Amino acid sequence: MEKILLDIALILVATKVGGIISRKLKMPEVLGALLAGVILGPVIFNLVQYDDNIKLLSNLGVIMLMFLAGIETNVEQFKKAGKSSLVIASLGILVPLILGSLSAFLFYRNIIENIFLGVILTATSVSITVETLTELGKLNTRAGINILGAAVIDDILGLVLISVLLAVNNGGGGTSLASTIIGIVLFCLFGILAIVFLPKPINKLTKDLQPGRSMLTFSLAAALIVAFIAEDLGIAAITGAYLCGLLLSQFHHKEYLERNVKAIASGFLSPIFFASVGLEASLVGFDGKVVLITLVMFIVAVIGKVIGCGFGARLFRMSRSESIQIGVGMISRGEVAIITANIGLQNHIITQEVFIPTILVVLLTTIVTPILLKLAFTHKNEMRIETLK
In the chain, what's the furthest Cα-to-Cα distance? Predict the structure, then answer.
């Protein structure tokens, strides 16, 4: 017990100091938190180990972060971004899938393994992007809304891809595949209906209530329950938490919830999540081939999302700068890619030789995303992009 208390204290202090230094360098605070995890982890000082306790707090951190993102989202703008988000997400999956699968043939000849490598690269985790956009004050811009919408759709489409590939690899599983897809569809359908129809009756019932701790407790419980249902159906828990946040963003007492959830997330749980990405990095099994695979995967990870999502944004007449912002915002792979790779490893679709580069690509994309987002949203760079011929 004493060790975990010290580990948490070290993480909180290191991420805060890293955030302050990062802000002094005019970079997003989240970048400092990520590098703090690398410094505390096995890559450098090995002071903190990524164990079950850190994993639990990290998972709670990302759930709270996405719940908060949902609360802070402008639902009316989100509704308007529905079609564009769908196209952006679809192209953001298709391009990395094709590029990733084809590039895998440079190293392997197993078709299923190569396609699965492409599937890993389709993943998007916007936890880091959400934090960066919030810091920059760009979460409710057209680019920010489309990033969030596309990321939710990306998660769902990516899950369908994984389910299909697992069924093929296991030699069938048609019934299991069908039930999974039906579960996903029903969850999404009920989620949309809830967001559209529940706010009015909830506001009517609670209009005379004063915001307080009970309201906060029930709201947090609701987020965890919806996250549990999503996870139980095979969808990422963060998707459920985000949808719950979208529902409560239309609540009369939104400001109270936003303020208090932010205190819990930003002050305690989210720093542990950001640090955990760095804590998972390891140099065990690191050799020349792993370096080469990591480099190829990283290039595909960046180019695939920027081209795919950026082109999707351009189809809806968004500006060049907005298209690049959306593409950059979708680069980070985070825990979604790790979960996908772990599924492949457990089902013997991919080898440890692929799993190690996946962790490294997650770390690299997570580090470069806030830096590139900062550059993409700088007014001077926006003007330069718009004047390019």
Answer: 65
Q: What is the pTM of this model?
A: 0.77
Q: Which two tokens stand for residue 199?
A: 């706010």
Select the more confidently predicted residue: 95 or 30. 95
**Burial label, 318 (beta-carbon count in 10 A; 0-12, 13-18, 19+):** buried
Domains of the chain: 57-387 (1.20.1530.20)
Residue 339: name the closest of 236, 213, 186 by CA: 236
Q: What's the rounded Cα separation, in Å, for the pair 112 and 350?
A: 9
Evaluate whether 300 touches 100 at the Cβ level (below 8 Å): yes
- Cα 59 off chain centre by: 12
Q: Of 235, 61, 63, 67, which Cα lies nearest the Cα of 154?
A: 235
Tell me what percent of the residues of the chain surpass a pLDDT of 90: 43
Q: Quick check: 19 and 37 in contact, CB under 8 A?
A: no
Q: How far apart are CA 315 and CA 88, in angstroms?
A: 9
Per-residue pLDDT tens digits for 270-285: 899 889 888 877 777 7
Q: What is the spatial distance between Cα 97 and Cα 154, in angstroms, rounded to a whole number?
A: 12
Asked if residue 54 has pLDDT above 70, the reply is yes
Q: 143-169 burial by CB neighbour count: b if 16+ within 10 A, else e?
A: bbbbbbbbbbbbbbbbbbbbbbbbbeb
C-alpha 228/C-alpha 341 separation (Å) is: 21
Positive or negative, the Cα torsion across 164, 166, 172, 177? negative
What lies within 8 Å, CB to CB, of 217 at 6+ separation is none
pLDDT in tens, 74-99: 787 777 778 899 999 999 999 999 99
Both tokens assigned to 12: 């909180």
Q: Does residue 43 carry a pLDDT above 90?
A: no
Mean pLDDT, rounded, for 206-211: 80
Residue the block writes with tokens 């690269």? 121
Dig out the tokens for 310 from the structure. 């950026």
Let me know: does 121 contact 297? Beta carbons within 8 Å. yes
